[in-house]
Amino acid sequence: MIFVNLPTDDLAAADAFYGALGFTKNEQFSDENASSWVISESITVMVLARNFFATFLVGTDAPHLPGAGGDREVLNALSCESTEEVDQLMSLAAANGGSTYRQANAPFPGMYQGAFADPDGHVWELAWMDPEAMQG
């Protein structure tokens, strides 16, 4: 399993956003400091209030929200079942407080991808790969 931990300045906005994408909130691991969003059986996003996120850091490290632009440390990537799922998630993200980071396109034969930023600026890449094209 993988747990992606992301800081936020607005937990309510993050909740509305991830819920609108169709992810399932795990109430057992959610409270006023954190929300647990199940993307799949093996992927969970933990959206943590910035001050709570900071309690997991050591030394002089501090939470960074990429919304203002600048350096990026990570692009979170999700595999989709179809090109339609890529387009649907891109549309849902844009309509619910996120933004298009990279327009959906087909950069290679058998691959379709796009990317959106959540309300805090964390980027999520979406990709569909044609199984037949990947075989040869």
TrEMBL record:
<protein>
    <recommendedName>
        <fullName>VOC domain-containing protein</fullName>
    </recommendedName>
</protein>
<dbReference type="Pfam" id="PF22677">
    <property type="entry name" value="Ble-like_N"/>
</dbReference>
<dbReference type="InterPro" id="IPR053863">
    <property type="entry name" value="Glyoxy/Ble-like_N"/>
</dbReference>
<feature type="domain" description="VOC">
    <location>
        <begin position="1"/>
        <end position="129"/>
    </location>
</feature>
<dbReference type="InterPro" id="IPR037523">
    <property type="entry name" value="VOC_core"/>
</dbReference>
<dbReference type="InterPro" id="IPR029068">
    <property type="entry name" value="Glyas_Bleomycin-R_OHBP_Dase"/>
</dbReference>
